[in-house]
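User: Last request for today: this protein with NDP, please.
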Amino acid sequence: MRSFSFSPATSSKHIIFTGNLVNMSKTILITGATSGFGKAIAEKFAQGGYTVCICGRRQERLDALKASLEQEYGVKVITLAFDIRDRKQVEDAMNSLKEQVTYLDILVNNAGLASGLATIDEGNIDDWEIMIDTNLKGLLYMTRQIAPMMRSQAKGHIFNIGSTAGKLVYKNGNVYCATKFAVDALNQAMRIDLLPYGIKVTEINPGMAETEFSLVRFKGDEERAKNTYAGINALQANDIADIAWFCANLPAHVCINDLTVTCLTQATSVYAIKEAERVKPVN
Ligand code: NDP
Ligand code: 8X3
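Assistant: Here's the final one, the structure of the complex with NDP:
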């Protein structure tokens, strides 16, 4: 039998159904939704009936995703185009969001990148600043805007996309790894600080995944980006979306704090083998 209840802390738009329609009218905000994990998470949660707020700098991609999600799943999609490195742009975008949405179930702090791959003595300082400003400061700007909203709801779920690079440093990864170690620290800090308010905090730490990540890291060098995954049955963006969906749909009293996921042939950010090196099952 299907039952439903109204949440007192919300507008009439926010109706929580139990039973088969459990996700109807819930709202998710995803940074970095124009590509890769963020886009796949937007698709997964739209399919699940969520109102989806998608962010990124590329307006044309946001518009295309909005059109396809609305057409495919009949859900409401809000687009917010801004540069997450710019504090004022983040504040303006979140103020505009708060005029459109009175209750937020999930924030996914996903926007991020690696820029370059070099030893510490040869690294490009502009690359370092881009990574720190995006992966670290951008995540903080977003969280500072949304955590008070969730605190007043006494409910919510923040996902932080970390990395295996935030668990173990690899050669030439220095500053990118440092930003992801910082995400790991902030994830722990958020969990502690938001504990009294019933807000879940979950860090998903993927290993190598085939998205636009390497294309961005190698500044548009398609050959080099493709070679990163040659001979590896790497994670795909949909794998991360499925995991986020799983974490978001656990019972209310259960929170996954920290989850590391790699493809079958990767153990850590340092230890990985090619698919051809793997001993194949006997049947
Ligand atoms: P993609 O390059 O496919 O996606 C990155 C997203 O971040 C894009 O939507 C991009 O949007 C957004 N973004 C980047 N810079 C900014 C900015 N300044 N302002 C706003 N949005 C920005 O990569 P992934 O999907 O792989 O990466 C997503 C997250 O996953 C990152 O944090 C990454 O570090 C992490 N990760 C990736 C792994 C991988 O192997 N792929 C493994 C582990 C973690 P736009 O350009 O439109 O602004
Ligand atoms: C992205 C995965 O191994 O390129 O965080 O750092 S890796």
